[in-house]
Amino acid sequence: MFKFVKGNLENIDGVAIYPLVSLLIFFIFFVGLFLWVITAKKSHIEEVSNIPLEDDTINTNQN
C-alpha cells in the first residue's frame, strides 16, 4: 500500500515541503496553546473547571 502512495508522491515537484509545513503548523499550534495556558487568569481556569459541576437544569417533571 505504501509503495503506491510513495510512487505517486515521487512524481510531484516540491512534495518535500508538505511534511515541513505540517510540522511547523503542529509546533506553532502547541506552542501557542502552551503560552495561552501559562498566561491564562486563574479565575478563568477555576470558572471553566467548575462548569461540569454546576446544575443549571430545570426539572419540569415535578409531581
Number of helix segments?
Answer: 3
> Which radius of gyration do the C-alpha atoms yield?
24 Å
Indicate the mean pLDDT.
Answer: 83
Q: Biggest sheet: strands, sense, closure? A: none
* Overall strand count: 0
Q: What is the global morphology?
A: elongated
Indicate the proportion of strand residues. under 5%
Order of helices and strands: HHH
Decide which structural class fits the backbone. mainly alpha
Low-confidence stretches: none
Distance between the termini: 63 Å
Give the count of structural domains: 1
The residue fraction in helices comes out at 55-70%
Protein name: Cbb3-type cytochrome c oxidase subunit 3
Keywords: Membrane, Transmembrane, Transmembrane helix
Organism: Bizionia saleffrena
Structure overview:
This protein has one domain. The relative contact order is 0.06. It is mainly alpha-helical and 63 residues long. The longest helix is centred in the middle third of the chain and has 23 residues, at 17-39. It contains three helices and no strands.
Layout: helices, strands, pairs:
Elements: H1 2-9, H2 17-39, H3 42-49
Quick rundown:
With 63 residues, the protein is mainly α.
Short descriptors:
single chain; 63 residues; mainly alpha; 0% strand; Cbb3-type cytochrome c oxidase subunit 3
